[in-house]
Amino acid sequence: MIDALPLIWGIVIAVAVVVYTILDGFDLGVGILFGVARAEADRDLMMNTVAPFWDGNETWLILGGGGLLVAFPLAYSIIMPALYIPVIVMLLALIFRGVAFEFRYVAKPHHHWWDKAFLCGSLTAAFAQGVILGGVLQGITVVDDRYAGGLYDWLTPFSLFCGLGVVVGYAMLGACWLNMKTEGELQQKMRRLALWLLPGMLLFIAGVSIWTPLAFPVIAEKWFSLPNFYFLWPVPTLTGLLAFSIYRALRKQYSIWPFLGTAALFVLSFIGLAFSLLPLIVPPDITVYQAAAARESQLFSIIGVLIMLPVILIYTGFIYYLFRGKVTAQSGYH
């Protein structure tokens, strides 16, 4: 009988990653869009839209990374040295970005360096996350349950393409978030920008979808074998329908649906990637069952997750409810 605990833990980590991608994705996207906002008032307003949420959003990154260490220590011990450089770059970028949140306001009027730190930190963190994704998808060299590759094996055209794709996707999320949370000229500017970013995001989604089965046989086998193909084909169809609905919503100047639709695009993309890999956790060879910690350890830690996860969800929901609605120039960051 197959132990369900590794699969349950795999789902928990996958959910944490996709929730982090959406929630921290939009505030990283707002930071990326700092580069197109020239007016000081616009930058203040953009930062105020994410100020109540950004640090709580990163809770999901901790859950995903910590869960990987606790539930799949073998996978953690392989993935971390394989992707050491992009992981460190991502963490340093998030630190720079977090510090910029706190220092930008107290440093006024001499805060231009903190504007740059916020922009560069957001851009670098987003790109590094895409590179990490590409580094995992393309496979990791493992010998005797240890990483056996080089320091720069992650540095490939595919991983760089994924990095650029995540930057564009996060920028799209950020533009739709600002369309939802702001009014007036800034809202109109972000709506127009989202109309340009949407085809770019779709281009990268299509690029990864075509590149992965062509370059990586293990993914091609899963995609095009029966009955897997029957479960997978609705994903690109739904992606196209969602993209069209986002375009129409932006053209009709809707506020909420473009953001929700873009978040749904991220979820669909992640479902496609998860379908491509599971039960693998370290492609092309290590499965969740091979990488799993002792059953007792997994059971003990999943009990903690079942206790704390509802608390995190309630807190997150309360914060988003409390700070719902539009953010105006009178809204301040404290």
Which helices and strands occur, and which strands form pairs?
Blueprint: H1 5-32, H2 40-50, H3 54-57, H4 59-71, H5 73-82, H6 84-106, H7 112-137, E1 142-143, E2 146-147, H8 157-181, H9 184-215, H10 217-224, H11 228-232, H12 234-251, H13 257-277, E3 280-282, E4 286-287, H14 288-291, H15 295-322
Antiparallel strand pairs: 1-2, 3-4
Please tell me about this protein's structure.
The protein is mostly helical. It has 15 helices and 4 strands. The protein has one domain (5-322): Formate dehydrogenase/DMSO reductase fold (Up-down Bundle). The strands form 2 sheets. The chain has a two-stranded antiparallel sheet with strand order 1-2. It has a two-stranded antiparallel ribbon with strand order 3-4. Helix 8 packs antiparallel against helix 13 (257-277) and helix 9 crosses helix 10 (217-224).
Helix/strand-derived category reads mainly alpha
What is the helix content?
A: over 70%
The geometry reads as: globular
Q: Could you give the count of β-strands? A: 4
Give descriptors for this structure:
77% helix, two-stranded antiparallel ribbon, Formate dehydrogenase/DMSO reductase fold, 334 residues, 3% strand, mainly alpha, 15 helices
Summarize this entry quickly.
The chain is 77% helix and 3% strand.
